[in-house]
Amino acid sequence: MCHCAVYVCSSSVRQERGRGDVRHCSHVIREVGSAAHSLRSQKKQKMAQFEEVSQKSKLHPKPEGLTLQYGTAGFRTHAKHLDHIMFRMGLLATLRSKKTKSTIGVMVTASHNPEEDNGVKLIDPMGEMVTVVWEGYATQLANAEQDSLLKELKDIIEKEDIDMSEPASVYIGKDTRPSSASLSQAVLDGVSSLGGKTHDYGLVTTPQLHYMVCCCNTHGSYGSPTTEGYYQKLSQAFLQLTQNVPNRTDDQKRLLVDGANGIGALKMREMEPFLRSELQVVLSNDGSSGKLNHMCGADYVKVQQKAPQGMNMGVGERCCSFDGDADRIVYYYTDSKGCFHLLDGDKIATLISTYLKELLTQAGLNLQIAVVQTAYANGSSTRYLEDVMKVAVCCTKTGVKHLHHAAQEYDIGVYFEANGHGTVLFSKAAQKQIQELVKDSNTNDEKKHAVKLLESTVNLINQTVGDAISDMLVIEAVLAIRGMSVQDWDAIYTDLPNRQLKVTVSDRRVIDTTDAERKAVTPEGLQDTIDSLVKKYKNARSFVRPSGTEDVVRVYAEADTHESADSLAHEVSLAVYRLAGGVGDKPKPLH
C-alpha cells in the first residue's frame, strides 16, 4: 500500500510539476508516514502486551505435566492445581471479548463438587456457554507448557483474526469457596495483562453472572446488570403472578430451602425482602456452620435419595435444595409413613410445560412448545407428556449445551436434566406475539388474564442458564396459581424404578452411540444383547454410554419394579464387561 501511493504521487509530480500536485504529494506521503507510524506503535503496543503476559504468567506457573480438559462444566479439579488455569482463562476471555466486541463472563466455581475443589466457566455474550471451538482453545491454552504459552496465544489470535487494538470487557464472579478469592485474582491478572477492563462482581451465583453478561450485551433490555436489578426483575414478576391467587395461607407460602452451605443461601437471604412475605423461606445449610455441599445440596439429595442434614422437615412439608453455585434445584417431601419423595428435573419440566401449554390454549396463541430430555429422563415422564398432555418431546445427547441448543429450535423450549439443571427458552417471535396480545385492546378477559400470566412467567425465568432461585420462584408461582400441593404435583405420574451403574473398561472409546445416546453402535453385538435383555422385563428400557471424563461406561436401566430394574442393570453391566473390554472384578449382583 505504501509503495504504490508514493509511486503514483511521484509519477504525477513528474508529469505535472505543479505546486498543487507537490502539496498533494507531500500530504499523501505524510498520511503514509503516519499510517506506518501507527502500525509501528500498534506493533510496539502488542509487543509490550505480550511482554506483560510473559512476566505475569511467571507469577502463575503451570505445574509440569498437568493436563486438564475444558468440558460442559468448564475446568474443575482440586483448587491447588488451578492458579495457572485461572490466569490463562483471563487471557482467553479477553481475546473472546475482542473477537465478539462484547462483554464476556468468567465464573470461578466448582458447583456441586466438594469444598476443596474449584473450577472456572466462560460465559458468552448472550449469557450462554462458550462455543465448542473456544472450549478447544481453553484446553489448548490451559495445557501449554510455560515456555510455549505465548506461541499458543498468538496461534489463537491468528486463527480467529483478532484485532488486538479492540477494547475488551470481562465480568468476573466467584462462589464462597475458600480458594475462590485468590483464584479470581488470577483471572483479573490475566485480563489486565492483555489490557482488558474488568468488572468484579465478587460473590454471585453462576446464573446471576450469566444474567449480568446478557443484560450488558443487550444494553439493558434484558434487565439491569446488578444483583439488585436481578432481584427486582424476578421478585416483580413473581409478585405479579401470585397477587391474584385467592386465600393463600401462610402454610402454602412456606418453603424449606437447603442452601448447600453455598452462595445460593447468601443470595436467597439478600432476595427475601424483595418477596414481601409472599414466599416465606425457612433457610437451612445457610453457610454459617457446615461445609459447602457436605451431606447437603441438590446433588446429595438426588444421588442419596434422602433429605439433607441440617433440615428439620415436617411431614408433607414442601422442601427444595440448591447446589453449590445455585444453578440446580430439586424438590422433595416425606409422607406420613416416613417415605422420602424426590421431585427431580423431569417432574419440574412436566409441571412447567403443562402450565405453559394450558396458558397458551387459554390465550389462543398457536406457539409450538416442546420438552427437551436426555436418555436419562424417566420413561413415565416421557409417556405422560406425549400421551396425556400431547406435548412434543425431543431427546438429545447428555449435557446442558446439547439441551439448550435443542430447546432453541422451538417457540418455547423447556429443558431440565434429571439432576435439576434447566430453564425455559422463549423465541423472539414467541415473546413478540405475547407482548402484542398483552397490548391488544380487543382481547377478551380470559385471554388477557392468560397472556399476562405468560408475560410475567417470561420475566421470571432466567433464560440464559439453569437458575435455582428463578426456577424455585417459577415452581412456587405455578403451584399457587394451580392450587396444587407438592403431593398433587408428585402424583401427576409415578416414576418407573431405575438403576444407574458404571463398568470400568480399558478404553471407553470402544463404545460409540447413536439416537441421542439411546443405542450402542459399537462394539458389535452389544445393542442386540441389550435389546434381548430388555424384552425379559415389563415397561423396561436400558442404554449404555461412555463417560466423558474417565474410562468407565455408564449403564441405565428402568423397569416396572425395583428388583427388575436392578436385575436388568446388572445383566447389561455384565454384557458391557464381556463385550467392551471390562477390567477388574466382574460386576456383582445388587442383591
TrEMBL record:
UniProt binding sites for substrate: E417, A418, N419, R545, P546, S547, G548, T549, R554
All residue ranges annotated as the Alpha-D-phosphohexomutase alpha/beta/alpha domain in the record: 98-129, 166-213
Q: Which residues form the Alpha-D-phosphohexomutase C-terminal domain?
A: 520-573
The segment(s) forming the Phosphoacetylglucosamine mutase AMG1 domain are 229-330, 344-482
Report the SUPFAM superfamilies cross-referenced here.
Phosphoglucomutase, C-terminal domain (SSF55957), Phosphoglucomutase, first 3 domains (SSF53738)
Q: Could you tell me what reaction this enzyme catalyses? A: N-acetyl-alpha-D-glucosamine 1-phosphate = N-acetyl-D-glucosamine 6-phosphate
Keyword match Isomerase = yes
EC numbers, comma separated: 5.4.2.3
Has keyword Methyltransferase?
no
Coiled-coil region: none
- Listed binding positions for Mg(2+) are S111, D323, D325, D327
| Similarity section | Belongs to the phosphohexose mutase family.
Protein name as it appears in the record: Phosphoacetylglucosamine mutase
Q: Which organism is it from?
A: Cirrhinus molitorella
